[in-house]
Design brief:
Helix content is 77%, strand content 1%. Helix 1 crosses helix 13. The chain starts with a helix and ends with a helix.
């Protein structure tokens, strides 16, 4: 009986491992294909069956920076994502602290903030376009920062409120008894203790702003495009420039990969703490 049970466990574990391997291949094979295509010549990129042994070239990367202004798109994406993240953290942390400590607005107000995440962004694009045109902000980075704040702020507030609720009030009260004001206690006690939460919220805010496509497509022009819109512009009337497209995709993914490896410890800690709360 025990032998049968052990054999059943081994078979079930082997079956689970096979499923996991297939799932990993389903994720990794497209990425490997993109990396491979970004380093091949144009003729080899369209060959069927594809050649896996080839002479690498950086022509596709040179193309997106020489023929297309991807250096400008990269600067636009970085500046917009960083500005949105910093402003979201500055405003969102203060709002979350007021919700966690003073219960401003009550439960329904907190639920209302969360429900704003359920609203499809496409329903807001026409009002944003009309307001941006009236304010003469079309084809500027400012309008994208304002637009991204509308769906990043609720997310940051929702995450940071959980972290602030997990910090004992006694720490702030002790600091204020020692002469600190409420603001000083917040900056010197609460903020250092909630750094994992700030980092988690900041990373998600940065990723949402970095990858956003719809608002960037509608509200920007030639000189304020972001990387996702720049990649979409490589789909021309002559066809898809598959090599430059793959090179642009690698350019978009690379900062996200680097951010993950540099901050994964704080990110996992932040997500775990928020889940426990």
């Amino acid at each position: 009986m025990r032998v049968i049970q052990r054999l059943t466990r081994k078979i079930s574990r082997g079956f689970i491992h096979i499923i996991l391997v297939l799932c990993c291949l389903g994720i990794l094979v497209p990425l490997i294909w993109v990396v491979r295509t970004s380093f091949v010549y144009r003729i080899e990129a369209y060959q069927i069956p594809p050649k896996w042994i080839f002479t690498p070239t950086t022509d596709n990367y040179l193309t997106i920076f020489s023929t297309h202004p991807f250096h400008l798109y990269l600067v636009n994406s970085l500046s917009i994502a960083l500005a949105t993240t910093l402003i979201s953290l500055a405003i969102g942390s203060l709002a979350a602290y007021s919700f966690a400590r003073f219960h401003i607005g009550g439960l329904w107000f907190n639920v209302g903030i969360l429900t704003t995440q359920m609203l499809p962004p496409i329903t807001l694009i026409i009002p944003f376009f009309l307001m941006a045109r009236i304010a003469n902000l079309i084809n500027t980075r400012s309008i994208l920062i304002i637009a991204y704040l509308t769906f990043n702020l609720p997310f940051v507030i929702w995450i940071m409120a959980s972290f602030f609720q997990g910090i004992p009030r006694e720490l702030e009260e002790s600091a204020m008894m020692d002469g600190c004001s409420r603001a000083q206690a917040f900056l010197r006690i609460i903020i250092p203790l909630s750094l994992p939460g700030l980092l988690s919220a900041g990373l998600f805010s940065f990723v949402l702003s970095w990858n956003e496509f719809l608002f960037a497509l509608i509200l920007t022009g030639k000189y304020s495009r972001t990387l996702p819109v720049g990649i979409a512009a490589l789909v021309t009337q002559r066809g898809i420039l598959i090599g430059p497209v793959c090179a642009g995709i690698i350019l978009v993914m690379l900062p996200m990969i680097l951010l993950y490896f540099f901050t994964k410890t704080f990110l996992i800690h932040g997500l775990t703490l928020g889940a426990i709360k």
